[in-house]
Write a structure and sequence with these properties.
By secondary structure, the protein is an alpha+beta fold. It has one domain: Beta Polymerase, domain 2. Helices cover about 45% and strands about 15% of the residues. It contains 13 helices and nine strands. Strands 1, 2, 3, 4, 5, 6, 7, 8 and 9 form a nine-stranded mixed beta sheet that branches. It is globular.
Length: about 350
């Protein structure tokens, strides 16, 4: 291990060179067309870049050996539109799929997932319009609510990552946001889950959620937390837009390329998942004992429970506003695990 990374002053120049070598041309090209556009890059592309740099070994930036996959986020709808236009009209990317939450673009072996933001400035009606939902009773409301607003800022994106080695993002101002143990995890080839303050989450729900909707808020945050800790989830690929052979549980993809996870980390995570499941059980009216596979289906079970709720549009709006209040308070109180390093200073 090169360094125990809580602060990394001796390695800043090393990291800076890696960022500019891998991403500088791409970021600078976009900014040359419109310097005002703000975005950030997140996901495996960053992890692989730093692993290749620090390990001095081959860790391809190309998923499946043939394709570079870049996940890009923006904070506002305005930046999303501007960036989409630059990629298509100026840089030659073509759209291969455009769905509610993401626009998939490709140029040669580069594939970009440009994610549509749940703009932090959106009110309830604008949020519904953004995702083509007539009202809060649309069956996709809950899924769009908690998946989109977790990516409302670069700090939030890092905070809600699953593993510390994936908890990093690079914005268009060359600010690198990373979990305090991200580099240690990458260099040591070990997997550790991002630890969040679960007690704080519970306390904020109690404080800022209307008593009539606390059970719903606990289901929402239960789903979010399970998504962050359920390691055997599959990602079903679309043959027309995705990379072949990507249908593998996420944790096993890491193990296949040399990462390891300790028995203690695994067992602690299993216990945490059990605790989360038990915490939402009292609020599930449709639950039945379905056997061993039920442990892999909690997200679907909770989503179904949310979908069948008979709530008014006004109730959905209240939950929408209180959910965002809780997220905002959470990030302000528990963001100490996310560090920031400006890589442009002194370059």
């Amino acid at each position: 291990m090169r360094f125990p990374v809580k602060d990394i002053p001796t390695e800043t120049s090393f990291i800076r060179r890696s960022v500019y070598r891998h991403f500088g041309g791409f970021i600078d090209c976009i900014k040359s067309y419109d310097d005002s556009v703000y975005f950030w890059i997140q996901g495996g592309i960053l992890r692989r870049a730093f692993r290749s740099t620090f390990k001095k070994g081959f860790d391809s930036l190309q998923d499946g050996g043939t394709q570079m996959d870049i996940d890009i986020f923006t904070k506002t709808i305005g930046d999303y539109i501007k960036l989409k236009d630059i990629l298509i009209d100026k840089m030659g990317f073509t759209i291969i799929a455009d769905v509610h939450v993401v626009c998939k673009l490709r140029l040669f072996n580069i594939k970009i997932d440009l994610c549509k933001p749940a703009d932090i400035n959106l009110d309830f009606d604008d949020f519904l319009d953004l995702f083509d939902m007539e009202d809060g009773r649309h069956f996709q409301f809950w899924n769009k609510l908690y998946t989109r607003f977790l990516f409302q800022s670069v700090e939030s994106s890092v905070y809600w990552a699953d593993f510390t080695n994936s908890a990093m993002a690079l914005d268009s101002e060359y600010n690198l946001y990373y979990h305090e143990y991200a580099f240690e995890s990458i260099i040591g080839d070990h997997l550790n889950f991002v630890k969040r303050d679960d007690n704080l989450i519970e306390n904020l729900i109690d404080k800022y959620c209307d008593v009539h909707y606390i059970h719903i808020m606990r289901l929402i945050f239960g789903t979010i937390r399970i998504r962050c800790h359920y390691v055997n989830q599959f990602r079903v690929s679309n043959p027309s837009t995705d990379i072949p052979n990507k249908d593998k549980p996420r944790v096993h993809k890491f193990l296949d390329i040399g990462y390891s996870i300790t028995d203690e980390e695994w067992e602690n995570n299993e216990k945490l998942l059990e605790d989360i499941a038990n915490s939402v059980l009292p609020y599930l009216t449709t639950i039945e004992d379905r056997g061993w596979w039920q442990n892999s289906a909690w997200v679907g079970i909770i989503n179904y429970e949310l979908t069948i709720l008979d709530l008014s549009a006004a109730a959905h709006e209240i939950i929408f506003e209180q959910f965002n209040t809780i997220l905002d308070k959470l990030l302000k109180k528990d963001l100490n695990i996310v560090k920031k390093l400006n890589l442009k200073e002194g370059y």
